[in-house]
Amino acid sequence: MLGHSMLALPGCLRAAAFWVFVYSYSLLCTCSALLKLLCSILMRPQITFQRISREVTPSCLNDPFLGTHCYVRNKDSGLRFHYVAAGERGKPLMLLLHGFPEFWYSWRHQLREFKSEYRVVALDLRGYGETDAPTNIDSYKLDCIIVDVKEIVDSLGYTKCVLIGHDWGGMIAWLTAICYPEMVTKLIVLSFPHPTVFTEYILRHPSQLIKSGYYFFFQMPWFPELMYTVNDYKVLKDLFTSTDTGIGKHGCRFTEEDMEAYLYIFSQPGALSGPLNHYRNICSCLPLKHHQVTMPTLLLWGENDAFVEVEMAELTRVYVKNYFQLSVLSYASHWIQQDQPELVNTLIWTFLEEDRFEIKD
User: Locate the AB hydrolase-1 domain: which residues (predicted)?
Assistant: First the structure.
């Protein structure tokens, strides 16, 4: 297997082999995308590069029942962050970190649900939505993103929070919990394993490597941005609505307005580069020097997740040196908190109300 042979090499050769592999696979994924683009041009030349102008904000993004739109400027980076907050100030903080390609709106069901007991803050990560998007790719290193989370908590006037992350936001949540354990009272991650599990598993399992092909494709400059705009952002639409990757028939399908909200955000000038730059820095703090997660942790996973294999969920247990709960939701897709919001919210409530706490040796 690729992972075993690579791990057997000396350190310097292992690093060189890893990067040769990364860029070779990136080139392969790019060639595949280029072939799809050429086929689209040949079959539908008139609509391939056609895009609808979206200048009016969909009304659902200004729904007052979801919360209040707020902004805060981080002292360290100087960047202005956008977030939507619900619930009274002074209540315990619940901080929500979205995945890709998403933004604060992916937490709309949780903003409504948890505001009775928490100050719920759904953040637009660096480069997303109305948050500032630096043009320098190095500005999206994971170390910078983790500091962003710490500074947001500080700026909101808190020292602790319940931290919840989905997909790429789950990666950030794991790393934040590892780096700032005193700040996270409870950790809840949706649809993403512990980062060490992910990096080791992907090298040993070709099936996961194929499912994560977009990670490698995104290493290429400008072309991934172009591909997302083809046929009026068809790739984006398919991610949430197709039979293979979209929200399942048993879940809460996107309304037309929900889809337009996503299209509005990601069709703005330059709106795709920031999110993709996150992936272009995925190796900036991997492999991890520290692995242990020391707070109670809940991991939620969709049985029909098209992007991350469920076997990684159970493997994550090894790295949580405290109470660990895993729930795999039947029929749920990757977009789990939007797919089955009532069940997800119930599982989160149950976990938050438990007082179990145990440190493992």
Answer: 92-337
